[in-house]
Write a structure and sequence with these properties.
By secondary structure, the chain is mainly beta. It has three helices and 15 strands. Strands 1, 2, 3, 4, 5, 6 and 7 form a seven-stranded antiparallel β-sheet that branches.
Length: about 270
């Protein structure tokens, strides 16, 4: 593993192993940041993944009505046409489609939605019907796909690892790239966000959810204890959700595994 990631992981594992919380005097000086390759990987992930706090944001955004020559493929360089309040000063727009709706597994509260990345297009000509030129496509562009202003690059150079000051617990609720088993350097979606006290740079301990089994002797239903299984670094927070990067894992992680502040592990 790259050196800076290894430093972060070893420090987080020490916190998980009941080493007393590090004070300002013992915190690594200077604080350890992610190396450039890892920052670039996170930037690429953020380019293709976006969470919206409410469906209304996407449902009221400008939308594609047609592509060049009546086709809707939206190949690179092809012109597409859109309607809605598009700003000519905004040179690049992302094209998105409504994706997963995130519901809290415990409270059943709506936490947000995933805006599926379709591609990007640059502004060409304004009007009641605005013309844009495709710059990047991930899949077929369809009428009804929505346009959102491109997100600015995340300032990851100042991303520093730290243990949350308060108790925070939650669950991994999604893996944006669609795998079922989660490993090192995979990005995951967490069911906690800024309102819960999560911040970019927070280190979290992951516990593998124990199975519920039936005791064949007593016929009782018994839950196998959760086990410490990995470390997450939070790298983007939203109001009710966050993205985390798996820094280390002693076994495959999965959706619904639990995370918590390292100082809260038992």
């Amino acid at each position: 593993m790259r050196k800076s990631l290894l430093v972060l992981l070893l420090w987080a594992m020490a916190a998980e192993a009941h080493v007393p919380a590090l004070s300002n005097d013992t915190y690594p000086q200077p604080p350890q940041a992610l190396d450039s390759q890892t920052r670039k990987a996170i930037q690429r992930f953020l380019l293709h993944n976006r969470i919206l706090d409410t469906p209304h944001i996407l449902d009221t955004a400008p939308y594609i009505i047609a592509a060049e020559a009546g086709r809707v493929l939206g190949a690179n360089g092809e012109r597409v046409h859109a309607r809605g309040a598009l700003d000519p000063a905004q040179l690049t727009y992302g094209i998105f489609r409504r994706g997963k709706v995130y519901i809290d597994p415990d409270s059943q509260e709506l936490l947000g939605i995933n805006a599926d990345d379709i591609g990007t297009a640059r502004f060409v000509m304004a009007g009641d019907v605005t013309t844009l030129a495709m710059e990047r496509v991930t899949q077929e562009v369809r009428p009804g796909d929505r346009l959102l202003a491109a997100q600015p690059a995340a300032p990851l150079s100042n991303l520093l690892a730290q243990v949350p000051a308060q108790r925070i617990t939650g669950r991994i609720i999604d893996v944006p790239r669609g795998v079922t088993q989660i490993g090192v350097l995979d990005a995951v979606t967490l069911n906690k966000g800024r309102r819960d006290g999560l911040m970019e740079g927070h280190l979290l301990s992951v516990k593998k959810t124990g199975e519920t089994v039936r005791d064949r002797i007593t016929d009782a239903v018994v839950k196998i204890p959760d086990e410490r299984a990995g470390t997450l670094l939070v790298f983007r927070t939203y109001e009710k959700l966050s993205y985390g990067l798996v820094l280390g894992a002693s076994r495959s992680l999965a959706v619904m595994d639990r995370f918590e502040s390292p100082e809260q592990t038992q």
